Amino acid sequence: MLRRLFVVLSSFLAVHGYSEPVTAPEELQTCVVCHGIELAGNQSVDAPNLSVLSAWYLKRQMQNYKQGLRAPHGSKDHVGREMAPLAADFGDDDMAVLEQYLADIPVFNAPVTIRGNASRGASLYISCSICHGADGEGNPTFNAPRLAGQSDWYLVRQLENFQRGIRGNSPEDLYGSQMRLSTSILTDRSAIEDVVAHVNTLKRGDH
Amino acid sequence: MAGETGTFSRRTFLNWVGAAGGSSAVYQASIALGLLPASDAVADRAALPNLDGARRSVVILGAGISGLACAYELERAGFACTVIEASNRIGGRNLTIRRGDVVDEAGYQQVCDFDDHPNLYFNAGPARIPGHHRLVLHYCKVLGVPLEVFVNENRHAWVHDSVAFEGRPVRLREFVTDARGFMTELMAKAISPGDFDAEFTEADAERFFLFLRRYGDLDENDVYRKSGRAGYAEGGMVKPAVYKAPYDFREILKHEFWTRGMHWTAAEDQAAPMMQAVGGNDQLVRGFVRHIESPIIVGAPVQSIMLREGGVDVIYAKGGASQTISADFCLNSIPKHLLPGIRNNFPADYLKGMESVGRGKLMKIGIQMAERFWEKQDIYGGISWTDQPIEQIWYPSHGIHDNKGVMLGAYVFNAGTCLEFGRLTPEERLARAIAQGEKIHPAYASHVQSGVSVVWHRMNHLLGCTAVWRRDTRERWFNRLQQPEGRHYLMGDQISYHPGWQEGALGSAHFALADLGKRVQAELGGDAVHA
Question: CB distance A44–B337 less than 8 Å?
């Protein structure tokens, strides 16, 4: 009963000139509900942009959620608590699927939503750049994730969480606790917004 | 007892009354305005041109109530429709939960373990239908969905507040009767006929005092001493009735019940009589599905919505592959907070509008009880109220005198409480609901067999309930979102003045259909025959 409706598969791209999104495999169907198609993020449901992140970082964060090092039961990281039960169900096989999917999808730049003083942020960022790189590209050697293109509201929230000891407060979370110490240079909310405003100016992803 | 109410300043009270008495213009106006409100009539059928021979295609996103109604109406008018639904279930937030049903919550999937029995279910979404929800009732009628009475208020039910009456629940009828008694006694004592201005005649005053007496069940001296309306302490059938002593009014004032629950059924949407579908409110969904021939593709999350000249292209995932569908129109009921996560070419302000409307949070917990113990306490259907986080306990209106029943152990409207419950595991939520239920029904826990929680803001593919419109977002964005963008219509209860109700969803659907119909008719030269 499709009648005049027509289903086009491969010819679509040629006809309309925009690309089809890379379909998430079954294992990742729940991820894209919140994090958006191709994991580009959705602020309306507090879901950050995962397309900028590397598999090694996501793997560790999933591990942290599972082990209660991030957003454990009773944590004030309320959004993290939304994520935690999903991480608990996410196995090694799923992780392998996610790794492949990350390789298949483009890197998206999240929209800019934070207004801070980027030039003030630039001087604050100097110490961040040691691990996260001058272009915010991240550095696996220092276990530092990519920042460029990440949802800015998410970076603000995480910096606040680190600062308040909501994230990185477990000594077993080695890199989180390191990050927690690093946020001591950000003395207030405007310093956080400034540094994130600077991150927004960095060379961003493919899109 | 009566003297104890004297802690109010009589002068203050008289000032209030004086203010009211002085505004006789209002009194006169309300007599003059004894008119019926202007009828907000809704056409039973959507206004669509009959398109036989000149078909248009419509892709409908979301198989909730608005999407299903659109498919039903459009295909009858000769349109070619396809419904795309992200989840594996048709119905959206119209969800009735029975044995074996999977509650698809992100991260906490539950499988309902109620007994397999036609009466053992609960409506996790829409649960009550008022008589003025004409579209819902229209569709129930034409789709052959039988209805039964739903009890929304029960004077035998309990009202409980942790700080009033030492935390002891009291019967709703006692609370309301005593509150009215005290209020009217106070008014009768505080007002003398001379307090009214000239336009309020002596005869009016006499009627006014009679009104107070009847309203509050005062005695001939305008004192509230006792009332059978509160129920008797004992007797009243074959032995003489022994009246209950009225409660201390200060306890009533402390109580949270009068802040909300006491007036609940005064609301147009909550007033008796109300209805529910026999066998669960998803019978409406089933009714639609029985009557719709168009394909309803489930398990098909939308990946991309692209507006173009003359139509809309939608890409959805199905079985791990992308499928594309191009249609002349798109009717979209996907929750507005999920649309920014779907690739689109919406204008920036259209998207901003969607992002500006809040995500509603509501939660229900259904609990199967081994015994309908509430019926032994004279409670047949209705709601008990508490100031605890669970807010309400519902007794099923159906299955009266069965052995078992599924009651609602929590209906949480408070967003903060919903978030808090949402962070718990389903087992922890149930344990909390049971502990709080114990405060109203001793030995509550001993009857519990199994429970299911539906936390709407965590439900997969929905991630929210009733859209939250503030006054400023209404003013700024409602019309923008209600009007089509090209050939794309946003709809559902979220795009109505009645979010959280099926009537809002259907009203929104009919609004979109009427507009779409007009456009198609214009395109066809205006000579299409109205269905």
Answer: yes
Give the pLDDT confidence of B433-477 residue by residue, as tens digits: 999 999 999 999 999 999 999 999 999 999 999 999 999 999 999
Q: Read off the pTM.
A: 0.89
- Taking Cα atoms as reference points, which of A170, A157, A163, A162 lies closest to residue A67? A170
Report how many domains make up chain B.
3
- Residue closest to B354 by CA, chosen among B477, B522, B197: B477
Based on the domain organization, do B492 and B438 belong to the same domain?
no
Beta-strand ranges (E) seen in A17-156 are: none
Q: How far apart are the first and last CA of chain B?
A: 67
pLDDT band at B191 (very low <50, low <70, confident <90, very high): confident
* B46-66 pLDDT tens trace: 667 676 656 799 999 999 999
CATH number of A11-104: 1.10.760.10
Range of the domain at B439: 96-156+362-458
Which pLDDT score is estimated for B524?
A: 84
Quick check: B4 pLDDT over 60?
Answer: no
Select from B108, B336, B355 the Cβ nearest to the Cβ of A85: B108
| For chain B, counts of helices (H) and of strands (E) | 14, 27
CB pairs under 8 A between A and B: 125
The reply to whether B520 touches chain A by the CB within 8 Å rule is: no
Q: Tokens 């609960």 map to which residue?
A: B122
Report the distance separating Cα B395 and Cα B406, nearest Å: 8
pLDDT of residue B55: 78
Sign, CA dihedral B392-B395-B398-B402, equals positive
* Residue the block writes with tokens 């996560």: B341
Minimum mean pLDDT among A7-21, A47-61, B16-30, B209-223: which range?
A: B16-30
Q: Is B28 on the interface with A (CB under 8 A)?
A: no
Q: Does B319 share its domain with B387?
A: no
Place of tokens 């409980």: B160
Do B360 and B465 contact (CB within 8 A), yes or no?
yes
Q: Is the pLDDT of residue B24 over 70?
A: no
Q: Which amino acid is at A119?
A: S
- Report CB contact under 8 Å: A16, B301: no
Q: Do A33 and B460 touch (CB under 8 A)?
A: yes
**Cα(B246)–Cα(A83) distance, integer angstroms:** 52
